[in-house]
Structures are given as C-alpha cells and as structure tokens.
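Why does residue order matter? Because the sequence determines the fold. Keep that principle in mind as you read this record.
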Amino acid sequence: MTKIDQLKPAVFIDRDGTLIEDEDYLDDPARMRVFEFTAEALRLLKEKGFLLIVITNQSGIARGLVTESDVDAVHATLNDSLKNSIDAFYHCPHGPNDGCRCRKPSLGMIECAVANYPIDIANSWMVGDKKLDIETGFNAGMSTALVLTGYGAAHVRELERMPDIVADNLLEVAREIIARDDQCP
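Structure:
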C-alpha cells in the first residue's frame, strides 16, 4: 500500500457558529451551548471515515480576554460532550492584524493538521459560518460548505465565490457531503 492509499479525507470545521452557538470570547465551558444537531452530524461524518478537525480563530487570547487554558477547557468539554468524536482541535491565538500564518483564511492550522494526520486534502472539506472559513477552504484547495447558523446568513451575501454547499446547519451539510461521497466510485 502506498502512502497515498493511506490518506483519509477530513472535514475541517469552524467552532463558533458552526458546532456551538457563537458566544463572544467564550472563556467558560459552562457558557458553551452545543447546537442540537452537532452530535448527529459528526456521527454521520465519522461513520463515513472522515477525520474531524476543528480549526478556530481565537483572537480573545491576543486581546487578553481569554487564556489558552480557557480555550483548551472549552475544547475538552466540547469533545467530551460529543463522545470524543473530534480528532483534533487547532486554534489561532493571534489578533486579526498580527500577520500570523495560522489565522484563517491563512493555512497554518490546516498545515499543522496535515503534518500530524494522513489527510487527503483534495477530498476534504472546510465547513464554517463565515466568509473567511470559505476562503480558507478555497485557499487549501478543498471543497467548502457554509452553514447559515452563526454569521452564515449574513456572510452568504458577502461571498464573491459561492461554496460547494450552503445549508441551514451542520447536519444538513453532513448529509450532503455523504450523499456526494456516495456518488463517487
């Protein structure tokens, strides 16, 4: 078996507004509200063999409003509530004007994931609720999906280029990804 045969497709998922309700500068897991459809969506994707990787900009760290420990605690609680279905969490701690390589729509978090997991980027997806999530997917050369939860309903009007899927929520995206995957030989 060659290395290419060992690669797996991934679904890169934004956190706030996609998996959970958007709560400005979430620093306490007790304030986290997971969307009711999130667990089912992730279960369906996991059953189809997708790696599930959360990538999230967390500028509250740079602003001094949230700590790295706060972000880690939210991620641990989130994954625990989702029966550890998420394979990895990556976050950018920088502010919008810091010029880092990791802040979406730059590819630093995706590059880290590819360095740590056998990911088939060409057959992977980027899912989020903001224009920058869709731009991240375009920049990485993967398929894209915009959810209308979070900021999605507002951001869909700002897109210069439409994603492959626009859906009400992550569960609808998961079902569409699976339907498209089932059509491939």
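Residues 8-183 form a domain with the Rossmann fold fold (CATH 3.40.50.1000).
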